[in-house]
Amino acid sequence: MPDPAEIAVITSVLPSTLTFIFQRVEKLLSSRGSEPETDVGAPAGLVGALQLPLQPDEDQLQAHRTELEQLRDALAIYAQGDAPIRTSDHPLLRNLNRLRGALEDVYGQRLTFEGEDRPASGPLVQQNLKDVTGEVTGMDADEIGGTARVVQGAESVARDAKLTGMKARRIGMP
Question: Is the dihedral of CA 49, 20, 55, 35 positive or negative?
Answer without folding.
Answer: negative
